[in-house]
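Structure ticket #2291
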Amino acid sequence: MQVVLDAEAVQRGLRRVAGQIVERSHGLSDVVLIGIRRGGEPIADALAHWLLELEGQTVPRGSVDITLYRDDTATALANPKIGPSQVPGSLQNKVVILCDDVVFTGRTVRAAIDALMDYGRPRRIELAALVERSGRELPIVPDYSVIKLDLEPEDRVEVLDDALGLRALVHSTGARSVVPSFI
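Resolution: structure written out below.
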Protein backbone atom coordinates (compact mmCIF):
# COMPACT_ATOMS: atom_id res chain seq x y z
CA MET A 1 0.00 0.00 0.00
CA GLN A 2 1.32 3.42 -0.97
CA VAL A 3 -0.03 6.78 0.19
CA VAL A 4 -0.26 8.95 -2.92
CA LEU A 5 -2.09 11.87 -1.28
CA ASP A 6 -1.85 12.63 2.43
CA ALA A 7 -4.44 14.85 4.14
CA GLU A 8 -2.38 18.01 3.60
CA ALA A 9 -1.90 17.30 -0.13
CA VAL A 10 -5.63 16.59 -0.51
CA GLN A 11 -6.60 19.91 1.05
CA ARG A 12 -3.98 21.82 -0.94
CA GLY A 13 -5.17 20.18 -4.16
CA LEU A 14 -8.86 20.77 -3.47
CA ARG A 15 -8.14 24.41 -2.65
CA ARG A 16 -6.47 24.70 -6.08
CA VAL A 17 -9.47 23.03 -7.74
CA ALA A 18 -11.83 25.44 -5.97
CA GLY A 19 -9.87 28.35 -7.42
CA GLN A 20 -10.14 26.83 -10.90
CA ILE A 21 -13.91 26.44 -10.48
CA VAL A 22 -14.26 30.12 -9.56
CA GLU A 23 -12.18 31.19 -12.55
CA ARG A 24 -13.96 28.99 -15.07
CA SER A 25 -17.44 29.83 -13.76
CA HIS A 26 -16.74 33.58 -13.41
CA GLY A 27 -18.10 33.48 -9.86
CA LEU A 28 -20.44 31.12 -8.09
CA SER A 29 -23.94 32.48 -8.71
CA ASP A 30 -25.18 29.43 -10.67
CA VAL A 31 -22.82 26.77 -9.30
CA VAL A 32 -24.15 23.68 -7.50
CA LEU A 33 -21.93 20.93 -6.06
CA ILE A 34 -23.27 17.38 -6.30
CA GLY A 35 -21.33 14.51 -4.72
CA ILE A 36 -21.78 11.00 -6.06
CA ARG A 37 -22.82 8.89 -3.06
CA ARG A 38 -20.63 7.94 -1.15
CA GLY A 39 -17.13 8.76 -2.24
CA GLY A 40 -17.99 12.06 -3.87
CA GLU A 41 -19.76 13.54 -0.85
CA PRO A 42 -16.60 14.40 1.14
CA ILE A 43 -15.07 15.89 -2.03
CA ALA A 44 -18.14 18.13 -2.52
CA ASP A 45 -18.01 19.14 1.16
CA ALA A 46 -14.32 20.04 0.98
CA LEU A 47 -14.83 22.03 -2.22
CA ALA A 48 -17.75 23.89 -0.62
CA HIS A 49 -15.44 24.78 2.29
CA TRP A 50 -12.72 26.12 -0.03
CA LEU A 51 -15.21 28.00 -2.22
CA LEU A 52 -16.55 29.70 0.91
CA GLU A 53 -12.98 30.56 1.96
CA LEU A 54 -12.11 31.97 -1.47
CA GLU A 55 -15.33 33.80 -2.34
CA GLY A 56 -17.18 34.22 0.96
CA GLN A 57 -20.20 32.58 -0.62
CA THR A 58 -21.99 29.36 0.30
CA VAL A 59 -22.55 27.10 -2.69
CA PRO A 60 -25.60 24.80 -2.68
CA ARG A 61 -24.57 21.16 -2.47
CA GLY A 62 -26.21 17.80 -2.50
CA SER A 63 -25.68 14.18 -3.41
CA VAL A 64 -26.94 11.74 -5.99
CA ASP A 65 -27.41 7.99 -5.62
CA ILE A 66 -26.68 6.13 -8.85
CA THR A 67 -27.81 2.63 -7.91
CA LEU A 68 -30.78 2.53 -10.27
CA TYR A 69 -28.82 4.14 -13.10
CA ARG A 70 -25.89 1.71 -13.21
CA ASP A 71 -25.52 -0.33 -16.38
CA ASP A 72 -24.72 -3.46 -14.34
CA THR A 73 -27.43 -3.29 -11.66
CA ALA A 74 -29.11 -6.51 -12.75
CA THR A 75 -25.89 -8.54 -12.90
CA ALA A 76 -23.61 -7.01 -10.25
CA LEU A 77 -26.03 -6.10 -7.49
CA ALA A 78 -28.03 -9.02 -6.09
CA ASN A 79 -29.65 -6.88 -3.37
CA PRO A 80 -29.12 -3.26 -4.32
CA LYS A 81 -29.15 -0.79 -1.45
CA ILE A 82 -30.76 2.36 -2.76
CA GLY A 83 -29.88 5.49 -0.85
CA PRO A 84 -31.43 8.92 -1.04
CA SER A 85 -30.42 11.57 -3.49
CA GLN A 86 -30.47 15.04 -1.98
CA VAL A 87 -30.46 17.63 -4.73
CA PRO A 88 -30.95 21.25 -3.65
CA GLY A 89 -33.81 22.15 -6.00
CA SER A 90 -33.99 22.21 -9.76
CA LEU A 91 -30.75 22.02 -11.69
CA GLN A 92 -32.29 23.83 -14.65
CA ASN A 93 -29.69 26.20 -16.17
CA LYS A 94 -27.23 25.60 -13.31
CA VAL A 95 -23.53 24.83 -13.56
CA VAL A 96 -23.29 21.47 -11.81
CA ILE A 97 -19.93 20.37 -10.48
CA LEU A 98 -20.29 16.61 -10.15
CA CYS A 99 -17.82 15.35 -7.52
CA ASP A 100 -16.31 11.89 -7.12
CA ASP A 101 -13.35 10.47 -5.27
CA VAL A 102 -11.88 8.31 -8.06
CA VAL A 103 -12.64 8.34 -11.78
CA PHE A 104 -11.73 4.96 -13.25
CA THR A 105 -13.85 3.42 -16.03
CA GLY A 106 -16.24 6.35 -16.36
CA ARG A 107 -19.33 4.20 -15.80
CA THR A 108 -20.16 5.70 -12.39
CA VAL A 109 -20.02 9.20 -13.83
CA ARG A 110 -22.24 8.19 -16.76
CA ALA A 111 -24.82 6.84 -14.32
CA ALA A 112 -24.61 10.02 -12.22
CA ILE A 113 -25.22 12.21 -15.26
CA ASP A 114 -28.30 10.13 -16.12
CA ALA A 115 -29.55 10.53 -12.53
CA LEU A 116 -28.97 14.30 -12.56
CA MET A 117 -31.18 14.76 -15.60
CA ASP A 118 -34.18 13.84 -13.42
CA TYR A 119 -33.65 17.19 -11.65
CA GLY A 120 -33.67 19.49 -14.66
CA ARG A 121 -31.38 20.26 -17.56
CA PRO A 122 -28.19 21.93 -16.31
CA ARG A 123 -26.50 24.54 -18.45
CA ARG A 124 -23.28 22.62 -17.97
CA ILE A 125 -22.01 19.63 -16.00
CA GLU A 126 -18.36 19.55 -15.02
CA LEU A 127 -16.55 16.75 -13.25
CA ALA A 128 -14.24 17.19 -10.25
CA ALA A 129 -12.33 14.20 -8.91
CA LEU A 130 -9.73 13.72 -6.26
CA VAL A 131 -8.00 10.97 -8.27
CA GLU A 132 -8.08 10.43 -12.02
CA ARG A 133 -6.70 7.00 -12.81
CA SER A 134 -6.03 5.13 -16.03
CA GLY A 135 -8.44 2.50 -17.34
CA ARG A 136 -11.26 4.50 -18.91
CA GLU A 137 -13.95 2.50 -20.71
CA LEU A 138 -16.09 5.52 -21.60
CA PRO A 139 -14.92 8.88 -22.99
CA ILE A 140 -15.27 10.72 -19.68
CA VAL A 141 -12.45 12.90 -18.38
CA PRO A 142 -12.52 15.08 -15.25
CA ASP A 143 -12.50 18.83 -15.77
CA TYR A 144 -10.71 19.15 -12.42
CA SER A 145 -8.60 16.64 -10.53
CA VAL A 146 -5.95 16.72 -7.86
CA ILE A 147 -3.79 13.83 -9.09
CA LYS A 148 -3.54 11.54 -12.11
CA LEU A 149 -2.31 7.97 -11.70
CA ASP A 150 -1.19 5.51 -14.36
CA LEU A 151 -2.10 2.16 -12.80
CA GLU A 152 -2.48 -1.46 -13.78
CA PRO A 153 -6.12 -2.59 -14.17
CA GLU A 154 -5.92 -4.77 -11.05
CA ASP A 155 -4.51 -1.98 -8.87
CA ARG A 156 -6.98 -0.39 -6.47
CA VAL A 157 -7.27 3.19 -5.27
CA GLU A 158 -8.77 3.68 -1.84
CA VAL A 159 -9.83 7.08 -0.53
CA LEU A 160 -10.12 7.25 3.25
CA ASP A 161 -12.00 9.88 5.22
CA ASP A 162 -11.26 9.33 8.90
CA ALA A 163 -9.56 10.93 11.91
CA LEU A 164 -6.37 11.42 9.88
CA GLY A 165 -8.28 13.37 7.20
CA LEU A 166 -9.13 12.71 3.59
CA ARG A 167 -6.32 10.83 1.84
CA ALA A 168 -5.70 8.47 -1.09
CA LEU A 169 -3.85 5.17 -1.09
CA VAL A 170 -2.98 2.73 -3.85
CA HIS A 171 -3.01 -1.02 -3.35
CA SER A 172 -0.75 -2.30 -6.10
CA THR A 173 -0.42 -5.93 -7.10
CA GLY A 174 3.03 -5.38 -8.54
CA ALA A 175 6.26 -4.41 -6.89
CA ARG A 176 6.54 -1.16 -8.83
CA SER A 177 6.10 2.17 -7.16
CA VAL A 178 3.24 4.40 -8.31
CA VAL A 179 4.45 7.75 -9.63
CA PRO A 180 1.69 10.35 -9.36
CA SER A 181 1.26 13.14 -11.85
CA PHE A 182 -0.02 16.30 -10.21
CA ILE A 183 -2.32 18.30 -12.43
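Closing remark: The first strand starts at residue 2 and ends at 5.
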